[in-house]
Design goal:
The chain contains twelve helices and eight strands. It folds into two domains: 234 residues, TIM Barrel; 45 residues, no CATH class. It is an alpha/beta fold. Helix 2 runs parallel beside helix 4 and helix 4 packs parallel to helix 5. Helix 5 links the parallel strand 3 and strand 4. The radius of gyration is 20 Å and the shape is globular.
């Protein structure tokens, strides 16, 4: 568990090992280092750095392309430093053209993440489950994926190609783009915002020989699906980008409402972790041990 003096684990290798296991791999979303620690403590094998949650937490704004490469990589660096889990990160559109994508891949790799996904939206992009998305040409998208593959230093750093073409075009165009991205070297494919079970089944069947991402977007365009159905369809990665964000927001709203009524947290604290429980969660016992060791 992310000890301060730990040897840094090899995230790309660990994540590639997970891809070889049978069944889907679950990736709860985190938007900060605390969330990453909680995901690890809950027993999951990998964490997902959500762009939607990063924008909400860092800016208090929606995911409409307001965060840039430096801000996202800084967030990724803090998250990977807080956990021993491999981290998969949202890299939006790669933050520019093919040359920008090269810097994007190298920056995320230096930050310690195990892989990223890059999408084919026009910059500035939008959350994949919002209206009004526009995508670049297929050739431009394939060029970005080719650049991403060429840019990585570790061959196990995972490149996930995400296409948002389902919304502005159709499923057929999204499939064509996904296949072209795989031909360009993408390790995993992510066909975003499929809208019903028939579309999910069709995509999973057409791309059955390639690892696929299922985006369990809470409240999004893709219908809620059980893990049994996801397993049956054959999706390999299941990201749940904003469950932790929504849960934290609801808990803070309720606590603040109670404090507003009472004037102090006298009643609100009854449903919270104790101070000592929380400091244990974020690693104070290790700090205390290190202080004693080096005093």
């Amino acid at each position: 568990m992310a000890d301060l003096l730990r040897p840094r684990p090899n995230g790309p290798d660990a994540f590639r090992h997970l891809l070889t296991r049978p069944g889907p791999v679950l990736l709860p979303g985190c938007y900060d280092a605390l969330g990453a620690r909680l995901i690890e403590q809950a027993g999951f094998d990998v964490a997902y750095m959500t762009g939607f949650g990063s924008s909400a937490s860092l800016l208090g704004r929606p995911d409409v392309g307001l965060l840039g490469l430096t801000e996202m990589v800084d967030n990724a660096r803090r998250i990977t430093a807080a956990t021993d889990l491999p981290v998969i990160a949202d890299a939006d559109t790669g933050y520019g053209n093919q040359i920008n994508v090269i810097r994007t891949v190298q920056s995320y790799e230096q930050a310690g993440v195990a892989g990223i996904h890059i999408e084919d939206q026009v910059l500035p992009k939008k959350c994949g489950h919002m209206e009004g998305k526009v995508v670049v040409s297929r050739d431009e998208f394939v060029g970005k994926i080719s650049a991403a593959v060429a840019a990585r230093q570790d061959e196990n750093f995972t490149i996930i190609a995400r296409t948002d073409a389902r919304a502005p075009h159709d499923v057929a165009e999204a499939l064509d783009r996904a296949r072209a991205a795989h031909d360009a070297g993408a390790d995993v494919l992510f066909v975003e915002a499929l809208q019903n079970d028939d579309e999910l089944k069709h995509v999973a069947s057409e791309l059955a020989d390639i690892p696929l991402v299922f985006n369990w977007a809470e409240g999004g365009k893709t219908p809620p699906v059980t893990i049994d159905r996801i397993t049956e369809l054959g999706f390999k990665l299941v990201i749940m980008p904003i469950s932790t964000l929504l849960a934290a927001t609801k808990a803070m709203q309720e606590a603040l409402a109670q404090i507003k009524v009472d004037g102090t947290p006298v009643n609100a604290v009854k449903t919270m972790p104790s101070f000592s429980e929380f400091t244990d969660t974020i690693g104070l016992p290790e700090v205390t041990e290190l202080e004693q060791r080096f005093s």
